[in-house]
Amino acid sequence: MATTPQLRIAVDIGGTFTDMAAFDEATGQLLFGKALSTHGELVKGIQSTIDSAGIDWRDGNLFLHGSTIAINTLLERNGANTALLITEGFRDIYEIGRVNRPDAYNLFFNKHQPLVKRSLRFEVAERLRADGSLHKPLDEAAVRELAKDLRGQGIEAVAVLLLHSYRNPAHEQRVKQILQEEIPGAFVCASHELSQEYREFERVSTAVANAYVGPRVSEYLGQLEAHLSSKGFGGDFYIVQSTGGLFPVEHAKVGCVRMLESGPAAGVIGAQAICAQLGMGDAIAFDMGGTTAKAGVISEGRPLTTGSALIGGYERALPIQIPMMDIHEVGTGGGSIARVETGNALRVGPQSAGSIPGPVAYGRGGTEPTVTDANLLLGRLDAEHFLGGELKLDLEGCQRQMRERIAGPLGLDPTEAADGILRIAVTQMSHAVKAVTTERGLDAGSFTMVVYGGAGPLHASAIAREIGIRKVLIPYAPGYFSAYGMLFSDLRYDYVRSVFRKLGDVSFEDIEAAYKTMEDEGRAALAASGIQADGVVIERAADMRYVGQEHAVTVDLPLAFFESRDRSAIKQQFDELHKVRYGTSAPKEPADLVSLRVTVLGTMKKPPKHSVAAGTATPAPGAVRGIKPVYFRSGGWADTPVYTRDRLLAGNEIMGPALIEEHASTTVVQPGDALRVDELGNLQINIGSDRS
């Protein structure tokens, strides 16, 4: 064991696998581990990844963690028994929502289902005005009586939303204090702690979601802390936020909703690091795991973020109003189940076999064919070399179940059925990419797609063809990439304040004062973290809209604009972004400042660039493990060389078809594709025109 702990350990829990990446700050060595996720005993899966890499917790000085526990609790609706306290007269705004009806002619449309039933929503006698001044005093005695009733009903969590608390949180603070006094074991969340923006529906939805997942998430984090302590870990424990930044576990126990998209966000941070290393400004980060596929965008070297998101899809979603990575997710992964429905319609996902029982190929009791099983049947996975041979795959079982459940009912042979499953999966996954590019006014074809996740490289070429993307990059260790991305994360604190001022009228003194207040909060939070950051970076942005509009766009604003007090530069920046997003702008129209945003980053030491030795254009003979038949739609079964990725050198070039195998992933190089290994060990693929 090292005298001074130097190991930075990162663990990402996914729906199927738990991944670990560790970085030795003294030697620069990288270590990786992977294990099946142990749902119900998540800590056990984490320990399995540590054991697989031969790591001792006592060598760790920093533990970084991302998990799907928060978002899964929301989507599966298995959170705490939660009550909502809300300003008198506004009991039903949580259920009324925005009255969105995206499918106007669907007679069977159902709107969102609140996480708190109406009988557990209670009105509080109080009222503040829009400027935060007092209109009606808080009835503290009534709140105390209500709290006693809630305690008798066995309430586990309480969310509090009082109107205009983003201007003046005094009433919310007092209500929370009373609730904690009367229900000491309950998880209590006040809306102003999470959001300093207007929009009461979004605020109440965010507060309720945080309360709903709070008890389960905070209990899990407490169990993990105890486990680390029992193993002798004496370092700092940080959680990855949905922005990709880090915050202390103590904050995560209170603001649990901030870690909804922690794993996917870390993957985008890893893709950003790849872009920086290669001098590449624009990229699509695409992550396909066992349960879902996710996409985000790096534009001009920076990940695109959003101030709110809809969890569960637009039609029936509940909004979450916190800063997060702009990520779109679809329910298609390696474990997505294929089935034949009424009318002989073949469907894939969103139901997943997960890790228990897992795909049929895993031999753990799964009986329904999945995307992974289809890849095995088409020769793209090797039954003897999956996960480096640690998990033997059941090819005969896959053939039997595919024939009985899919091929037979559809009148196809198993190969055609497996190919059909992959075609549907690829089309569905392409929707995630389009949602963060085409629907944002961006040309997906002009971006390089950085593909990772255990299942991502299997489908990268096919997805690129579906969308018209010409370049794909498979990074080093794609099967561990979300955990690896955490090693590039920085300490991060985000702040926002709604201001409602016309850009032409507001004084720079007022703007500067508001920004400085938030920046000082961020600096203080960094100082209190206990971690010595390499430096501090301040980023400013503003939500802006044209006068008369309802919704705003978030505009990044360089500090130089404020130093030179250049109002026209701020307006021009907004006009240009509006043009990209909506295809139109109005430079002559006045604009509103809706909210001011600040991000305070405490930069951390990053892992060194991974590099590989230089080679010739032709890979060494020892890089080829063998030749096997693989099915491609354009030409049927073809004898395909299988390369071992660890034996490929910088400058090696490979023409498709080919398979590139590594411990936790396999890259499919389609016929017509041209692959080159760069100096960092990335696989850069120029996509051909064949539809394979």
Write the topology of this structure.
Elements: E1 7-13, E2 17-24, E3 30-36, H1 42-52, E4 60-67, H2 69-76, E5 82-87, H3 93-96, E6 121-124, E7 127-128, E8 134-136, H4 140-152, E9 157-161, H5 170-182, E10 187-190, H6 200-230, E11 236-240, E12 246-248, H7 249-254, H8 262-278, E13 283-288, E14 293-299, E15 302-303, E16 305-306, E17 309-311, E18 318-320, E19 324-325, E20 328-330, E21 336-341, E22 345-352, H9 371-377, H10 395-410, H11 414-436, E23 448-452, H12 456-467, E24 471-474, H13 481-486, E25 491-502, H14 508-529, E26 535-546, E27 553-557, H15 559-563, H16 567-582, E28 591-603, E29 624-632, E30 636-644, E31 653-655, E32 658-662, E33 665-669, E34 674-677, E35 683-686
Parallel strand pairs: 1-4, 4-11, 5-6, 5-9, 9-10, 13-23, 23-24, 30-32
Antiparallel strand pairs: 1-2, 2-3, 7-8, 11-12, 13-14, 14-15, 14-20, 16-19, 17-18, 21-22, 24-35, 25-28, 26-27, 26-28, 29-30, 31-34, 32-33, 34-35
Helix pairs in contact: 2-6, 4-5, 9-10, 9-11, 10-11, 11-12
Short description:
This protein is an alpha+beta fold and 692 residues long. The protein contains 16 helices and 35 strands.
What does this protein look like?
Pfam families: Hydant_A_C, Hydant_A_N, Hydantoinase_A. This protein has 692 residues and is α+β, with helices and mostly antiparallel strands. The strands form 9 sheets. Strands 13, 14, 15, 20, 23, 24, 31, 34 and 35 form a 9-stranded mixed sheet that branches. Strands 3-2-1-4-11-12 form a 6-stranded mixed sheet, sandwiched between helices. Strands 6-5-9-10 form a 4-stranded parallel sheet, sandwiched between helices. Helix 4 (140-152) crosses helix 5, helix 9 (371-377) packs across helix 10 (395-410) and helix 9 (371-377) crosses helix 11. It is globular. The relative contact order is 0.10. The mean pLDDT is 90.
